[in-house]
Amino acid sequence: MNRPRRTRVDRSFRRASAVFAITIALALILSGLIVLLPIGSNGDDPGSANESPLRVTPGAELARWETEVAENPGDANRIVVLAEVLANSGRVTESIPYFERAIELRPDDAQLRVAFGSALQRNGSYYDAELQLLRAVELDPDNISAAYYLAILYEGLPSPRMDEARRWYERTIEIDPDSVIAQQSAQRIEELSAEIATPTTGT
Fold first, then answer.
1. pLDDT of amino acid 165
2. CA-to-CA distance for 21 and 154, rounded, in angstroms?
3. Residues 6+ apart with CB under 8 A from 67
4. Which pLDDT value is given to residue 46?
5. Could you give the CA distance from residue 101 to residue 151 in angstroms, rounded to a whole number?
6. Are 145 and 139 in contact (CB under 8 A)?
7. CA dist., res. 135 & res. 50, Å (int)
8. Residue 24 pLDDT greater than 70, yes or no
9. In terms of C-beta density within 10 A (0-12 exposed, 13-18 middle, 19 or more buried), how is residue 56 classed?
């Protein structure tokens, strides 16, 4: 009986991941986490000006960021980008130590904790994901990304916490009612209400 709901949650999470890949990238840029693009000798190449630092290209791109981090072990900017590249290419477990190191350097960065929480959630580390996302909310109460990921997290738990999920969906609407995230939340709230209103047929 839980299977259809879990499937919808998975679809919601994939949609959220697509939206937040953009949201987080923009937030990281605006917060100064990815304002680095002198990258090696390529920084002097005018043709590389349009290259996205978060674009996941296997092989050379990943190797480049690993080299950047190895040469600049105390630079949170580069560490975050490498963690994001790993997480967004499906190598979440490998990304976790880099997220942890970045958080040691930037403990009060809410958007960084959202990115880490999202990665942990994808990895099935629900408790740790919840800690990171709640910490993001403490640091930035109006962080719509954190609110939405918390909603998806609570709904997608092995034992779903639906009241909390609904509360966080509603919170995204309070934060920015005109946003795409709020629209997705409103749609999910409608779906949940319909599920409650529809009687379950017994067998």
1. 97
2. 20
3. 40
4. 37
5. 26
6. no
7. 34
8. no
9. middle
**Distance from C-alpha of 70 to C-alpha of 64, rounded to nearest angstrom:** 10
What span, in angstroms and rounded, lies between the C-alpha atoms of 180 and 157? 24
- Tokens representing 4 are 């259809």
> Cβ neighbours of residue 124 under 8 Å, at least 6 residues apart?
none
Most confident segment among 19-23, 59-63, 147-151: 147-151
Instruction: Assess contact for 80 and 34: CB atoms under 8 A.
Output: yes
Lowest average pLDDT, out of 15-24, 54-63, 92-101, 144-153, goes to 15-24
Q: Distance of CA 21 to CAs 55, 119, 194, Å?
A: 10, 11, 30
Give the integer Cα–Cα distance in Å for 106 and 115: 13
